[in-house]
Amino acid sequence: QQEAITPSMGELAQRYWGSFVVCTVICAALLLYSSKTGKNEQKKNAVEALSRKQFIRFQINYLFVYTLAIASDWLQGAYVYQLYHSYGFEQYEIAKLFVGGFGSSLVVGTFVGGLADKEGRKKMCFLYGLCYIVSCLTKISRHYWVLMVGRILGGVATSLLFSVFESWMVSEHQRRGFDRTWMRDTFAYSTFGDGIVAVLSGLVGNAAVARFGLVAPFMVAIVPSVLACTVIAATWVENYGARDEPVLAAFRRAGALVAQDRRLVALGLAQALYEGAMYVFVFMWTPALHEGGGSGGGGGASEEESVDDYLGVIFAAFMVAVMAGSALFKIGCAAGGDEAVYLAPLYLHAAALVSQGAAAFFLEQKAVVYLAFLAFEVTVGAFYPCYGTIKAEQVPEEVRSAAMSLFRVPLNAFVMALLLRLRGLAPGAVFLLCAAMHAGALACYLYFHATRPEGGAVGG
User: Fold this and answer.
1) DSSP letters along 98-152, please?
2) Superfamily name and number for 246-291+310-453
3) How far apart are alpha carbons 266 and 259 in whole angstroms?
4) Which residues of 343-376 are buried (b: 16+ CB within 10 A; e: fewer)?
5) CB-side neighbour CA atoms (13 Å) of 316
6) What is the separation of C-alpha 262 from the centre of its chain, rounded to a whole number of angstroms?
7) For this UniProt entry, which segments traverse the membrane (predicted)?
8) Do domains 53-244 and 246-291+310-453 have the same CATH topology?
9) pLDDT tens string 104-144
10) What is the rounded CA–CA span in Å between residue 250 and residue 268?
11) Which of 18, 193, 322, 355 is deepest in the core (most CB within 10 A)?
12) Angle at 386 between CA 384 and CA 388, to 5 degrees
C-alpha cells in the first residue's frame, strides 16, 4: 500500500514544483526580452530623455505607494475566513460577514468614487490606508458586530484601492504632460509587482501566523498601510475631477455619461464579467484541485490527501504566471502600439473562456485542470494593464473615479449573490458558469472594439 502512495506523491511534487520552475524560467525570459525592447524604445526617444527621467521618478513613487497598499490587502486576505472560524462562528455567519464587505464596496464604495472626484483623489488614497488600519484592528475583537464593522470598512477600502489610486495616477500622468504610451509600462509594472508582493506577503503572513497566531498577519498589514499614508501625505499632490457640483450630482452625471455611451457600457460590462469570473475562480481553485480522484492527475485518493502540501507552491506558480502575463502585455505593446492594446482583450477573453471551459469538462483530470488554471492566470496578468490603459483613454477625467467605481457595481452584486448560492453548485457547473461569463465578456468587448472610431483612441 505504501509503495502505491509514494510514486503518486512524487508525481505531485514533479507537477507542482516542476511547473513553478518552468513558469519562473519563462517569466524571466519574457522579462529580459521586454526590458531589451524598452531600451530600444528609449533610444528612439532620446530627445525626450529629461521628460523620461522625470516620468521614471514619478512612476517609482506611484508604484512604491501602490505596492505598499496592495501588500496590506495580500497580507490579510488568506487568513480572514480562518480567523473567523477560529472565533467559533458558523459558516453562514462568516458568509454574512463577507457579504457585508462586498455590500459596502457595492454601496458606500461606489459613492466614495464620486467623492474622490470632488474632494480629491489624494485624500481618498489616504482614506484607504486609514480604513484598512481600522479594519485590521477590529480583528482583535471576537465580537461579531465589531468584525462586521471591520468587513464594511474593508469593503470601502477595496473599492478605493481599485479606483482612486489608478485615477490619481492617470490624472497626474496627464497633468505632467508625459507621453501617454508610457502609462502602459506603469500598468504593466503594477501588475508585475502585484505578483511579487503576493508571494512575499504569503511568506510573511505564514511566518507571522506560525510565530504569533492568526491575528498576527492583520497586525503586520497595518505597517505597509501606515507607510503608504506617510508617503502619500509627504510626496503626492492633490488632483480632482468635477469639483463644482455635489457628490450625488457628480455621480448621476457619471452614470448618465456612461449610460449614454454604449461603448463605455460594453467596456464596463466586459470588465465586470471577467473580474466576476475571476473572483469565482479564487473561491474554487483549491476545491477543484481536490475534487474527485482524477485520471492523468496523480492517482486517486492519494492526490486528494496530499495536494494540501503543495498549495503554497501552486499559489506561487499562479503569481509567476500573472507576472508572465504582464510581461507579455509589455512586449505586445512595444511591438504593436495602440492597435495591440485594443486587440489584446479579444485574445484574453477567448483564452479565459477556453481555460475555464477546459476546467469544467476535464475536472477529473487534475493535470489538465492545473494547466488551464495557469493559462487563466496569464490572462489575468495581461488583463489589468490592458484594461487600465484602455480606461485611461476612454473615461473622461472629470468623472474618472466615479465611473470606475460604477464599473465595479455589477461585479460586487454578482459576488454577493455567488457567496449566498455557491454551496449548492457542483465545481463543474461553477466553471461552466465562469466560461459563460467570459463568453459574455468577449461579446461585450467585441461590440466595444467593433464600434471603435477609426484610428482613434478616445471613444464617444
Assistant:
1) HHHHHHHHHTHHHHHHHHHHHH-HHHHHHHHHHHHHHHHHHTT---HHHHHHHHH
2) MFS general substrate transporter like domains (1.20.1250.20)
3) 10
4) ebbeebbbbbbbbbbbbbbbbebbbbbbbbbbbb
5) 17
6) 25
7) 16-34, 55-74, 94-112, 146-165, 186-209, 215-237, 310-329, 341-363, 369-390, 428-448
8) yes
9) 877 776 677 677 777 888 999 999 999 999 999 999 999 99
10) 18
11) 322
12) 65
Cell for 28? 524571466
Q: Write down the domain spans for the chain.
A: 53-244, 246-291+310-453
**CA angle, 27 then 32 then 35, to 5°:** 120
CATH 1.20.1250.20 corresponds to the domain 53-244: yes
Give residue 315's identity as a one-letter amino acid code: F
What digits encode the pLDDT tens for the residues 134-191? 999 999 999 999 999 999 999 889 888 888 898 899 989 988 888 888 898 899 899 9
Ramachandran bin of 300, using left for φ above 0, alpha for ψ from -120 to 50, beta for the remaining angles:
left
Q: How many residues does the chain have?
A: 460
**Model pTM greater than 0.90?**
no
| pLDDT tens-place string over residues 427-455 | 888 899 999 999 999 999 999 999 877 54
